[in-house]
Design a protein that fits this description.
The strands form 5 sheets. Strands 1, 2, 3, 4, 5 and 6 form a 6-stranded mixed sheet that branches. The chain folds into 5 domains: 5-206, Hypothetical protein af1432; 209-362, 2-Layer Sandwich (Beta Polymerase, domain 2), CATH 3.30.460; 491-571, no CATH class; 576-653, no CATH class; 661-735, 2-Layer Sandwich (Alpha-Beta Plaits). The chain is α+β, with helices and mostly antiparallel strands and 736 residues long. It starts with a helix and ends with a strand. A hairpin with a 5-residue loop joins β7 (405-409) and β8 (415-419). Helix content is 50%, strand content 16%. It binds manganese (II) ion. Residues 63, 88-89, 155 line the site of manganese (II) ion.
């Protein structure tokens, strides 16, 4: 696209128009101060994104502006949230920093943008399932301000609305994630309209054909539906009017997504889905008569239509945890058809459309801010409380599994999970051993803290390192993770070795002056005399001086007096142990590979759609049966994708004759010097063989090896095994 002068001018005009619209459509009444803050946020955002354009070609600023409009109008949040929405991509994408925002807009806006930036950073370079899993964890950590999540939902809604310019695989990936995370979240927060739109848009990209088909059918049946509602209205109209009720009757169409779900769940056709729409009666009322009028309308409706007693839902007496209030009944309507009737006051209707933001607008005597705070507090409780059944995505996991885990961020915004009770030192070793080893100090959320401080979920941890830093014995008191403790111990051991080798030299000299020969026998006598375990302990103690001249003289004196018995205690260490991921080593089938790295994994074909080679397929990870392969257009696929997107793994058919085969070889033999070296040498000499993993152990002089290799063909494998057998010391070579 050429950015001509005219184009830029038209774009600027549109920008001004959209900005004015943002202020106009705000659900909350904006004060002068509010408008000033929003103006400032808008100007900063315009400046920050001035060089950026979206894939569609339009200036980037239109995206945050649209997100702010959703936040302001559809969700009805406050000016702080509107400003944060305008700024939500500024820190991630531009040279503005969090500190800048803090200074310009204060702590709250900066904190919200920080949360949004962290979420964005999580997304990079992760496969779908891992990403979804991380998202879920992240949501649990960021619940200290639900506005972060709400703005993120608005961000996602706008991205879904403007996804046409994207690659189809990306569209599917984002849609799957939307169904998995954002739609249930929007539902949980009482944002029903947004939830519905997210679901419909997701279907549009995961199953475009189905989406179009249902959409067209809805359009075709619209007239018929309108007539049905008109006829229904005629029946009750006079009775309602006789009670001088002020009301409107509308049809509420079922969403495309929920029609699709019903078709799949009940195995019916579009025409057989009877509740494609509900009838909604919205009435005017003052607060005092609200409930009474609802039941009055109920009474009138059921005078004319027989109600289904099992389908009565009274959410006026006990509202849903999301704040939803209404009276739902299902009646036998015209043409012998069950139809749902939703009875709600205008106030209830607004809450249903907007969620709690509307709820608190109606609260008498409360100013808007306090209402919003209360809403946020209630959302926080809902998120804090894992028992809340409506949080669908949480149900799929055993939440208490993660209660013992905390999630912290690196300065770059990467997420790290650590066991509860972990300290900055654990974090340092979690990042990298080298970082752990060189830890000098730590900052948590910008403040210097002791290395022993317990970390909390959501903390941002920065480790300061120094070339001269080294683990000390104290560190074992600060570190709680097995990984950190093992590394610290082995480092302390290394240090001990260095001191010991100095100690050995000192000891040789001291023994010489006592006319005692320095040999294995003497060493063993010394170890026993000082009640130690190993010669290393002995040399180390000499090195640091706890065994001094005087004590060596005592030993010399006793030695000349008596012969001592001693036990030879030789401890052998395994030559080398390298662990490999054994899960990778399966080779039962060789015509499908999974994931972005095209791994070979165990799988079975699903019975519901029986894929054959060549079909577009995907893998679905089951709890008990490993990976099941489904066709992409399998009727169960949409359901699986939506509910368990994190368990979906991409699958690709491969030509097995051109692919390498992963094989595990087991070696046994007599341990001798250089054997490992010879084995690895032999394998790498073979041109067509790659080593994927090696694990050698020796036990009482017996050598055991497991090698995982990738070979091109059986011939190559046999050749390799033959050559391995020829190595001196190798007894048996078998394929596992
Ligand atoms: Mn965005």
């Amino acid at each position: 696209m050429e950015l001509t002068q005219e184009y830029i001018e038209a774009e600027n005009k549109e920008l001004t128009r959209q900005y004015k619209k943002l202020l106009r459509i705000s659900y909350q009444t904006l004060t002068k101060e509010d408008k000033k803050m929003i103006r400032k946020a808008f100007e900063i955002a315009v400046d920050a994104h001035k060089e950026q354009r979206r894939k569609s070609g339009e200036a980037y600023i239109f995206h945050p502006l649209a997100v702010a409009q959703i936040v302001a109008s559809e969700i009805g949040l406050d000016a702080t949230s509107i400003a944060a929405a305008l700024l939500h991509d500024v820190v991630e994408d531009t040279s503005y920093t969090l500190a800048d925002l803090d200074q310009l807009f204060g702590e709250t806006v900066a904190r919200i943008v920080d949360g949004l930036t962290k979420i964005s950073n999580l997304k990079k370079d992760r496969d779908v399932s891992l990403q979804a899993e991380n998202f879920r964890k992240m949501l649990l950590t960021l619940n200290d301000d639900p506005r972060v999540i709400i703005i993120k939902i608005a961000d996602r809604l706008h991205n879904m609305q403007t996804m046409d310019a994207m690659r189809p695989d990306k569209q599917r990936k984002i849609s799957s994630e939307t169904l998995y995370i954002y739609a249930p979240l929007a539902h949980r927060m009482g944002l029903y309209n947004i939830k519905t739109e997210l679901e419909d848009l997701s279907l549009k990209y995961t199953e475009p054909e189905v989406y179009k088909d249902i959409k067209n059918k809805i359009k075709d049946s619209k007239e018929q539906q309108d007539k049905y509602i008109r006829d229904f209205k005629k029946v009750i109209q006079d009775s309602l009017d006789a009670e001088s009720l002020n009301y409107t009757i509308q049809g509420r169409p079922k969403s495309i997504y929920s029609i699709r779900r019903k078709i799949l769940a009940q195995g019916v056709t579009f025409d057989e889905v009877y509740d494609k729409f509900a009838i909604r009666i919205i009435y005017k009322s003052d607060t005092a008569n609200e409930k009474f009028l609802a039941w009055k309308i109920y009474s009138i409706v059921t005078d004319h239509f027989r109600p289904n007693p099992t389908r009565l839902r009274d959410w006026i007496s006990s509202p849903k945890s999301t704040g939803y209030e209404a009276l739902h009944i299902t009646v036998m309507g015209l043409k012998g058809r069950w139809v749902e009737v939703q009875i709600r006051s205008e106030r209830m209707h607004e809450i249903a459309e907007k969620g709690y933001a509307a709820h608190f607008k109606y609260k008498q005597g409360d100013d808007g801010d306090r209402g919003l705070d209360e809403w946020i507090n209630r959302l926080q409780e809902a998120l804090d409380n894992p028992d809340t059944s409506a949080v669908d995505f949480v149900e799929n996991f055993k939440l208490n599994l993660y209660n013992k885990e905390i999630f912290v961020f690196t300065p770059q915004g990467d997420l790290k999970s650590l066991p509860k009770g972990a300290t900055p030192l654990d974090f340092a070793f979690g990042v990298h051993t080298e970082v752990g080893m060189r830890t000098r100090g730590a900052r948590v959320n910008g403040k210097l803290v002791p290395l022993s401080q317990e970390l909390k979920s959501g903390d941002q941890v920065e480790i300061m390192t120094s070339e001269h830093a080294r683990p000390t014995n104290n560190w074992l008191d600060y570190a709680t993770t097995a990984r950190a403790r093992a590394k610290i111990k082995s480092s302390l051991k290394e240090e001990k070795k260095t001191i010991a080798s100095d100690g050995k030299i000192t000891l040789t000299r001291k023994l010489k002056s006592q006319k005692i020969p320095f040999n294995e026998k003497t060493i063993n006598e010394l170890v026993s005399f000082f009640k130690l375990k190993t010669s290393l302990d002995l040399f180390y103690r000499v090195g640091i001086g706890t065994i001094d001249n005087k004590m060596i003289k005592e030993f010399a004196a006793q030695r000349s007096n008596a012969f001592m018995s001693f036990i030879k205690n030789k401890i052998r260490k395994p030559t080398s142990t390298e662990n490999i991921d054994r899960d990778e080593i399966t080779n039962k089938y060789d015509d499908l590979v999974f994931g972005s790295d095209e791994q070979k994994l165990d799988f079975t074909m699903s019975k519901c759609c029986n894929p054959i080679p060549g079909d577009p397929v995907f893998g679905f990870t089951t709890i008990n049966d490993g990976i099941k392969v489904h066709k992409s257009n399998c009727p169960n696929a949409i359901d699986l994708r939506s509910k368990y997107a994190y368990r979906i793994i991409s699958a690709k058919w491969i030509d097995s004759s051109t692919q390498g085969h992963t094989v595990e070889i087991k070696l046994t033999g007599i341990d001798n010097l250089g054997l490992v070296n010879q084995v690895t040498q032999e394998i790498s000499n073979h041109m067509h063989v790659n080593i994927k993993g090696i694990n050698f152990t020796t036990n009482g002089g017996v050598f055991n090896g497991n090698i995982t290799v990738v070979v091109q063909s059986k011939t190559h494998l046999n050749k390799l095994m033959d050559n391995l057998k020829k190595i001196n010391g190798i007894d048996k070579v078998t394929r596992v």
